[in-house]
Design brief:
The protein is an alpha/beta fold. It has twelve helices and seven strands.
């Protein structure tokens, strides 16, 4: 089995990964890293949890390691993510091996102050949600003209959430000679259009099932009178802990959380109406 060093990954990245016990690449990493290091546009299909962050993050950091520092507000690389939680996750992963390459996120749901301060200091890799990034561009805090590496992560979710027009506008602001790397669980529909319009002769790598993996789940449906619903939920949660309960509305999520707390189940609501710190704390506790 190849190691990261065999794929051409610099020693400082290999050493940082080894300190975390990561020495051999996952399938999607082994398939894509060499092409990305060579500067090729990459179109990758892989399911969630397959190791895509290292697949694009390792060559991204390696490509910037020998370059100069970015100017304030002018990143050299851009990673687009559909949600703030994913942006935070990507940032933490890249920082674990980035060395001198500065990595910072920008996303909505929090104040602008810390994000603007980071941009003023300079950041080589900007991990961004499209909406907040466009706000920062409009207020002249970011210029994407120096961006020569772009990663679009979870492009299918980006399309599902209606971000494709914003992604197009952002890509149009980057250097025309940029390298564009795209990862997605599916490569059809709007994702295929993005690939056709914004990637140059991309090498394509596909890992895992071609359709979302739903076979591992067992579905059980229970018809319960409303007054007994919470008691049944408590029994189900206690038999399969930890659990995620979905509600139709954010108010419903808050209500269910309070009701289950009264029945002795430790809960934490998470939805768009919660602050980023509240959402992050809920995820950490989970």
């Amino acid at each position: 089995m190849n190691t990261f060093a065999d794929l051409g990954v610099p020693s400082f990245v290999c050493d940082a990964l080894a300190r975390r016990g990561i020495t051999h690449p996952f399938e999607i990493q082994a398939a894509t890293i060499a092409d990305a290091l060579a500067g090729r546009d990459v179109c990758g299909r892989a399911p969630t949890g397959s190791g895509k962050t290292l697949a694009f993050g390792v060559p991204l950091v390696a490509s910037l390691a020998d370059g100069g520092r970015s100017a304030p507000g002018r990143p050299l690389a851009l990673v687009l993510a559909p949600t703030r939680e994913l942006a935070e996750q990507i940032t933490g992963e890249l920082r674990s091996f980035s060395g001198r390459v500065r990595v910072d996120p920008v996303y909505g749901g929090v104040g602008y102050g810390k994000q603007i301060a980071a941009l003023r200091r300079g950041v080589e890799v900007l991990v961004a949600c499209p909406g907040r990034l466009e706000d920062l561009i409009a207020s002249n805090h970011v210029d994407l003209g120096d961006v020569r590496h772009v990663v679009i992560d979870e492009a299918d979710r980006m399309a599902d959430m209606g971000f494709v027009p914003a992604v197009r506008r952002l890509l149009d602001r980057t250097a025309p000679t940029r390298q564009t790397v795209l990862f997605s669980a599916t490569l059809d529909g709007d994702v295929a259009k993005l690939t056709a319009e914004y990637q140059r002769d991309p090498v394509r790598h596909e890992v895992g099932e071609s359709t979302p993996d739903v076979k591992a789940a067992t579905h059980r449906f229970m018809k319960v009178e409303r007054e007994h619903r919470n008691a049944v939920v408590v029994d189900v949660v206690n038999s399969a802990w930890p659990s995620i309960i979905f509600s139709r509305t954010r108010h419903g999520a808050d209500r269910v959380a309070k009701q289950l707390e009264r029945l002795g189940v430790k809960t934490a609501p998470i939805h768009g109406g919660r602050s980023q710190s509240q959402r992050q704390r809920a995820l950490d506790d989970f």
